[in-house]
Amino acid sequence: MLLQTPKRGAMPSPRSALAAATPHLAVLEAPPNYITVPAQISMWGNSDHGDCVTAEEAFAKACNSPEIFIPDGDVVSWATEHGVLESAAPVQVLQLMQKDGFQEGGSMFDDGPFSSVNWTNPAILQSAISKGPVKIGVAADQLETAWRTTNGQSGWFAVGFRADTGYDHCVSLCGYGTINWLAQQLHLQVPAGIDGTKTGYALFTWDSIGIIDAPSLLAITCEAWLRQPTTVTQAATAPLYTESGSLNDKSYNLGATMQPIGPSFQVSKVRSGTALELELAGTVSATSLAGANGISLEIRVNGLNPNFKVQGSLKAGHLYDSIYTKSIYTALAIGTYTAQLYAQAAPSGTATGVILDPGGWGEAILATEF
Predict the structure, then answer these.
(1) For 36, phi and psi rounded to 5 degrees?
(2) Same domain, 244 and 275
(3) pLDDT of residue 27
(4) What is the distance between the alpha carbons of residues 248 and 264, in angstroms, rounded to a whole number?
């Protein structure tokens, strides 16, 4: 079976960022071998998108104790909202994750402060890995070839790489030791022709963990970073509420396509990775219907269709009635949006004399950012 070509999407961090970063120092001698293997890993969107830099962040969270698994959809949404879905530099995402990490199960999972790691110095690199997964930028052509030897499953070996400066991918180092020791931890047999007594590293990429020997790692790596701590857990922030003004302004005539009715209002979305929900429990009246069975109503922001909705309706024979409608947007970026009720005669025809909140009781749309 042919494997789908995995995506990449990393670009090297600016040299100025590397120069300005605090370097990791191996203060204490690292243990002779070390590995962290999460119980559950994933592609985290990297099969379809160039979000490898963000996928590595999700892997790092999975290395936490206790493990934190971020679903693929949430990783893709986070990368989309932060403008790093198809391309990013490692330092760019590290900076974003310090302020606004993954939100899951009522908690926010940020990164701790990060330092640069001298990957060419084994003592420093191994010291860093023993403290948490090390985020590295690499050239991925030869790595993908190794990954394909196991059909994209964990357990591949990457050896004998030549120097390559086509840096285009971000992966994670989660262990080190002799190749024999690493293979034992991953329940693998070292292939014939590979010297198991040599130093190797456990490397995560594309929903898999394999082993790369030290010379091959040096041949393809351009940068390395350590987060300390890898994960900072905080309680998710409280919901934010915005209420429209009174909806009772004038009478509307409707056709068979959705059109805005009633006053609009502004909603500011201030956090990423959050859903915006808008709901109305109110009253609507209409004078008459022609060729229609009723009126459909929904709330929209910037005229966009919601990701999920409960559509309200006013039915023929009950042209003065209570309605309820709710719209949910799951992937809006931080910003200010215009919210408004939309309505149409349904499924065809026209409606006349449509009034929101007849009598002017102060009914309003409530917007909630969770």
Answers:
(1) -125, 125
(2) yes
(3) 73
(4) 11
Task: Break the chain down into helix, strand, coil percent, rounded to 5.
Answer: 20, 35, 45
284 vs 264: CA distance, rounded Å: 17
Cα gap 12→10, rounded to integer Å = 7
Residue 10 lies in a domain: no
Same domain membership, residue 162 and residue 256: no
Check residue 179 and give left, alpha or beta (phi > 0: left; psi -120 to 50: alpha): alpha
What is the structure's pLDDT at 236?
A: 67
Q: Tell whether 110 and 221 lie within a shared domain.
A: yes
- The range of the structural domain enclosing residue 89 comes to 15-235
Residue 110 lies in a domain: yes
Task: Tell me whether strands 240-243 and 366-369 are parallel, antiparallel or unpaired.
Answer: antiparallel
| Identity of the amino acid at 199 | T
- Token representation of residue 291: 């060729």
Mean pLDDT by 10 residues, the chain (370 residues): 82 93 87 97 97 98 95 94 94 94 87 96 96 98 97 97 98 98 98 97 98 98 97 79 92 95 92 87 94 95 94 92 94 92 95 93 91
In a domain, 164, yes or no: yes
Task: Let me know if residue 9 belongs to a domain.
Answer: no
Cα torsion angle, 129, 134, 139, 143, sign: positive
Cα–Cα–Cα angle for 202, 208, 210, nearest 5°?
A: 30
The CATH number of the domain holding residue 306 is: 2.60.120.1340
